[in-house]
Design goal:
The chain has 90 residues and is mostly helical. Helices cover 69% and strands 0% of the residues. It has one domain: Flavinator of succinate dehydrogenase (DNA polymerase, domain 1, Orthogonal Bundle). The N and C termini lie far apart (36 Å).
């Protein structure tokens, strides 16, 4: 349900990122959302919103490199991979 209010949309996406169903996905996507969603422009919000429609196992496989993401998700998955690599090393 798209909304014209960008702040409301950001809050909804951040909530969805933190309430995925698996703790691992909550931590990965929720931390990523906290760090990046507030500064995302509308096209990046679109990409993140689309990614959140995918299953946790698929997202995990894409982020870990076990599988290549579909073309529509490759940019967002790259951002997630970079974020994941930075947080693991920190």
């Amino acid at each position: 349900m798209p909304t014209s209010d960008p702040d409301t949309r950001r809050r909804r996406l951040m909530f969805r990122a933190w309430h995925r169903g698996t703790r691992e996905a909550d931590l990965l996507l929720g931390r990523f959302a906290d760090a990046h969603v507030p500064g995302f422009e509308p096209t990046l919000l679109d990409g993140f919103e689309a990614l959140l429609t995918e299953s946790d196992p698929d997202i995990y496989d894409w982020v870990t490199g076990r599988l290549e993401p579909p073309p529509g998700h490759d940019n967002m998955v790259t951002l997630l991979r970079n974020f994941s690599n930075k947080t693991v090393r920190a």
